[in-house]
Each structure stands twice: as C-alpha cells, then as structure tokens.
Amino acid sequence: MANEIETIEFSSREQMFESCANDLFSVISNKTNNSSTCRFLLSGGSTPEPVYRLLASKIKNQANIHWGLVDERFVDVHSEFSNEKMIRNALGNEALLTGMVFDAENYEDNLKTVNEKYADFIQQTDIILLGMGEDGHFASLFPNDLNSEILLSENHIGIFNTNAPSEPIKRITCSMNMILNSSMILLMITGKKKKEILQNLHLNLPIHKLLNKRNDIQIYYAD
Fold first, then answer.
1. Is 9:191 a contact under the CB 8 Å cutoff?
2. What is the per-residue pLDDT for 37?
3. What's the rounded Cα separation, in Å, for the pair 87 and 67?
4. By three-state DSSP, how is residue 202 classified?
5. E strands along the chain, which residues?
6. Above pLDDT 70, what percent of the chain?
7. Which has the closest alpha carbon to 179: 136, 126, 117?
8. Strand duo 65-69 + 96-98: pairing
9. Which of 43, 71, 144, 195 has the most CB atoms lying inside 10 A of its own CB?
10. Distance separating alpha carbons of residues 169 and 158, to the nearest angstrom
11. For the chain, what are the domain ranges?
C-alpha cells in the first residue's frame, strides 16, 4: 500500500453523491445495454441513501439489475435498523432486491438460506459500494471480533455471521474475499475523522486490510 491512500475529494457531500451516482449509472448502463444482468451489492447506513435515490431517478428500467446487500443487521425487515428497508425505500418498487434476512428467528438457518439466495453474487458481482465506520470496519467486518478476523485473514468466500460492537450485535456479511472478487469496488466516506483513520496505515484496521489487497478501489470523500 502507498504511504498515503488516494481519494477523490469533493467540496460538498451533495457533489459527491451526484458524482457517485453518475459514475455508477455509467457502469450499470454499460453492463445492461447488451441485456446482461448487472449484479450490484449495496451498503446500508445513512450516508449512501441519497446515492440510491439518485440512481433510481436515473435508471429507467431496472429489469436487468439484481441488487443485493453487502451486509445486514439480523433484525426483522420492518425494523428501523434494517438496511433492506432503507434500500427498498430508496430504490423504489421496481427494484429486484434480494435481502439477507429470511428467518428472523433462526440465525444459523437464515445464513444457509442467504448463501443459497446469493449464489449468483458469490459467483460474480459487478459492483460493490462500501462505506466505512469510525472503527475502520467495512461491510460487517469489525476489529476485535473473532468471526470478522477469520474472514479478514482466511480465504472464505460467501456470506457469514459476525458480531458488531454495538446493538444490533448479530450481523450478516459478505466475506472479504467475496468482496475482493467484485469487478468494481467503490468506497464512500464522509467526515475528517474517518479520513484520518483511513490515512493512518499503522492502525491496520479491516479497511486497511481490504485496500492492501486491491489497489484499484475508488475512494470518494467529502467532509
């Protein structure tokens, strides 16, 4: 990894959201123009929601786009904590979105179902949009979590259960190697604190382990 991680910086978050949506729309269009399916994994949280709404307004036909989640909280899909709920609201009713919670009562059985439902994504994902937490986590791969550390250091490919440091603790996530296999990865971060964490390579947090494996990840930043 270079001494400093290169980022594409914007003067405002609104400018970043618009540029991100335009760039993603271009990639989606190139993939779907010949009737190919574009497989796109999305992150939750409040930061990317405006991008999803902008994308939905630009895409006239979502028939050839298969949306999925990078990670999810193990909660009912109607919960305020549900990534799926937020993304469905942002993309609209036409979106073909596969969530990650099919059995909110059984953590292990749910995981088996997710891996079955995500077989196409596991085989090939075209685009992944990631965010980053202030602890340096991405997806639901956290520092100081044993399950996350295994997925960050070993060659597992698929969907796994991990544990967050705060509620809701139970999480479902794509493994690092599944994410690394995506044709395109875009990371979007906001705020000076996150930028400082990103640039502090001595921390060797999950995000640094990811960037050490892929030097072509596009990083969009706005204060």
1. no
2. 95
3. 10
4. helix
5. 8-10, 38-42, 65-69, 71-73, 96-98, 127-130, 159-163, 170-174, 184-190, 218-222
6. 99
7. 126
8. parallel
9. 71
10. 20
11. 8-135+179-196+213-222
Q: Note the helical H segments in 130-191.
A: 146-153, 176-180
The residue behind tokens 């630009």 is 58
> Cis (ω within 30 of 0) for the bond into 50?
no
**CATH topology classification for 8-135+179-196+213-222:** Rossmann fold (3.40.50)
> Taking Cα atoms as reference points, which of 29, 222, 55, 38 lies closest to residue 131?
222
Both tokens of residue 192? 């000076």
Q: Strand 71-73: give its sheet, edge to edge.
A: 71-73, 170-174, 159-163
The DSSP bridge pattern shows strands 218-222 and 159-163 to be unpaired
Overall size of the chain counted in residues: 223
Closest CA to 56 of 83, 17, 82: 17
Identity of residue 182 = S
Q: Does pLDDT of 3 surpass 80?
A: no
